[in-house]
Amino acid sequence: MKFALVGYGKMGRSIEAAAAARGHTLRAVVDRDDRKGGVLRKIGGASFRGVAVAFEFTEPASARDHVVALLERGIAVVCGTTGWDAGDAAVRRAAKGSKAGAVIAPNFSIGMNLFYAAVEDAARSYLAVGGYDPWIAEWHHRGKADAPSGTARRLAAIVAEATPGGTVVREGLPNAPLAPGDVHVAAIRAGSQPGRHLVGFDGVDDAVTLEHVARGREGFARGAVLAAEWLRGRKGVYGFDAVLSDLLRGARRKGARR
Question: Is the torsion defined by CA of 105, 106, 109, 112 positive or negative?
Fold first, then answer.
């Protein structure tokens, strides 16, 4: 499979290595900062001849336009840029008229996506019995543009949806006392941490904390490449949960045959 990279930062380079390890070929690189020879600054000036899929890991202000432009060219997209509305009408229109599909997700780590399920189960249990305040904290490197992270917001949404009767998500420093059950989300930007997320349930008698720690970007990159492979022959816009569901189904079938 021939692929393109839109964004050639740390994630782009990790994806390049992960894709090469699975036998895929880099065909084009687009990045506003020319970090190596042959890098084009804009999608419009790039040749995508033979490219089946593009990995879009850039900035929130650029992601929508990149995804739309790629879909309009008939190129499948794996987008991991956070901090923008992936449900944007322009993206939906482009996907509807495209022969290619897209996977758009805040996090392509298989471990994190399994963590989502664990958090949902925990939230349903702890919040059903009452007396526990949910909270979320995340820590990323100082250069991450959005705060809270897209992953933290996804975790907050999972907890909020699991709360009987619903609840409110509060990001950052509260300007008023939180109501019981409100989901408080806090973010730290420092150092070179690739990603650490904590979800807690704090009660009068005890407290429980669930934690996911990324050891590097390689896990995100491998998941993004798996999403690109999964997109072959598919149209429409998907989350990574659809990819993971098929991967788990295949793993279970393989295990049953042993």
Answer: negative
Active-site residue list: 140, 144
Share of the chain above pLDDT 90, in %: 76
The per-residue b/e assignment along 54-74, b for 16 or more CB within 10 angstroms, e otherwise, is: bbbbbbeebbbebbbbbbebe
- Sign of the alpha-carbon torsion through 5, 9, 186, 219: positive
Cα 26 to Cα 5, 12, 21, 71, distances in angstroms = 8, 11, 12, 18
Beta bridge partners of 223: none
End-to-end CA distance of the chain: 30
Tell me the per-residue pLDDT of 16-34, one tens digit each, with 9 for 90 and over.
999 999 999 999 999 987 6
State how far the Cα of 204 lies from the Cα of 122, in Å rounded to an integer: 17
The answer to whether the pTM exceeds 0.70 is: yes
Report the alpha-carbon distance of residue 159 to residue 146 in Å, rounded.
21
Q: What share of the chain is helix, strand, coil (3-state, %, to 5)?
A: 40, 25, 35
